[in-house]
Amino acid sequence: MKNTKPADSPASGAACAANGSKTACGLPSNVVIDMSKATVQHTDVEWQRLLTQRQYQVARLQGTEPPFRNEYWDNHEDGVYFSVCSDTPLFDSRDKFESGTGWPSFTKPIEPLFVSAQTDASLGMVRDEVHCTTDGAHLGHVFDDGPPPTGMRYCINSASLRFMPRKQYEAWVAAHAKPAAK
């Protein structure tokens, strides 16, 4: 994974500094998402009906919400974050950390197969954009400047997420568990 840096800048400094300047996390993407393998698919009209305007702008049109003014950047509840576009659990609050960027940040996804990364070299910088593999939702970006144990920082838009408290999540897992084979 790559840190986001302007193409002509030195390789130092935070990738998503919260100093009021334009940051890598705050810029739109030009990545083309391959939806052919997504199991949850809807037309644009259906997505607009299913999502709020901000959710649609971020998750479907690869936008970015403002830092420090989004739902989950400062959420400290115990639970799991799902894709707003499907019933796919993506990130556990136990892997969330304070990155200082103004977006929720995680060291890893719950299941690596649920999140994919594509290199986005648009806008004069290189960064790895992440998507939900189940529904193609744009989630945010991943950088290699996170804390141990992974060293990764999944910088995720709240608008792409739906939070479920731990007790509800445990009930959800039990309800969706496959019966044991006999």
Describe this structure in words.
The chain has a six-stranded antiparallel β-sheet. The protein starts with 43 loop residues before the first helix and ends in a 6-residue tail after the last helix. The chain has helices at 44-50, 53-60, 166-176; strands at residues 79-83, 89-92, 96-97, 105-106, 115-120, 127-132, 138-143, 153-156, 161-165. Residues 1-24 have low confidence and may be disordered. The chain is built from three helices and nine strands; from the N terminus they run ααβββββββββα. It is 14% helix and 22% strand. With 182 residues, the protein is α+β, with helices and mostly antiparallel strands. It is globular, with a radius of gyration of 16 Å. The longest helix has 11 residues, at 166-176. It has one domain: Metal Binding Protein, Guanine Nucleotide Exchange Factor, Chain A (Beta Complex), CATH 2.170.150.
Task: Indicate the radius of gyration in whole angstroms.
Answer: 16 Å
Shape: globular
Number of helices: 3
- pLDDT < 50 stretches: 1-24
From the coordinates shown, what is the CATH architecture?
Answer: Beta Complex
Q: Which band does the percent of strand residues land in?
A: 15-25%
Sequence-ordered SSE layout with sheet pairings:
Layout: H1 44-50, H2 53-60, E1 79-83, E2 89-92, E3 96-97, E4 105-106, E5 115-120, E6 127-132, E7 138-143, E8 153-156, E9 161-165, H3 166-176
Antiparallel strand pairs: 1-2, 1-9, 3-4, 4-8, 5-6, 6-7, 7-8
